[in-house]
Amino acid sequence: MKLHDLRPAKGAVRRRKRVGRGIAAGQGKTAGRGTKGQKARSGGSLPPYFEGGQLPLVRKLPFARGVGFRDPWRVQFTPVNLERLTVFQAGDEVTPEKLAQAGIIKKADELVVILGRGELPQPLTVKAHRFSASAREKIEAAGGTVEELPWQRGGYRTR
């Protein structure tokens, strides 16, 4: 069998229905749209949730439930793994400002959480807003120190 021998299964591909091409075609005159009404006109399509002007079900449901819910008090931390901190020299002080300068985070005013993936070969003084237990353990095992920066909900960008 060669590439030119490949064909779709019999009956799998149908010809396009050419509507509005005269009475002999079987779909002439109203072209399968019925008679009159909004759906018979051009551009007369309706959104799937439209219920004839009645308040649609999707608008009746409570807004802050399920998939569409966004917690307005959620605090977004930018995660940084230990393997990213290997760009700093031994004894350096790692702060959100230095992380932004190094291109590890986008802005210096982000809330930073240090996570424990990877190893830290050199001792560093790491200042961040939050640390995972494994990251704290690995930094101290490498001879470095951990310092949690103060943060509050309104003081930093939370989104």
What does this molecule look like?
- By secondary structure, the protein is an alpha/beta fold.
- It is built from three helices and six strands; from the N terminus they run αββαβββαβ.
- The protein has a domain at 77-148: Ribosomal Protein L15, Chain: K, domain 2, CATH 3.100.10.
Summary keywords:
alpha/beta; Ribosomal Protein L15, Chain: K, domain 2; three-stranded parallel sheet; 3 helices
Q: What order do the helices and strands come in, and which of them pair?
A:
Elements: H1 57-60, E1 77-81, E2 93-94, H2 96-101, E3 111-115, E4 125-128, E5 130-131, H3 133-141, E6 145-148
Compact overview of the structure:
This protein has three helices and six strands; from the N terminus they run αββαβββαβ. It is α/β, with parallel strands linked by helices.
- CATH domain topology of the domain at 77-148: Ribosomal Protein L15, Chain: K, domain 2
First-residue to last-residue Cα separation: 57 Å
Number of strands: 6
Order of SSEs, N→C? HEEHEEEHE
**Share of helix among residues?**
10-25%
Rg (CA only): 31 Å
So what's the CATH class of the domain at 77-148? Alpha Beta
Q: Which percent band covers the strand fraction? A: 5-15%
Residue-averaged pLDDT, rounded? 88
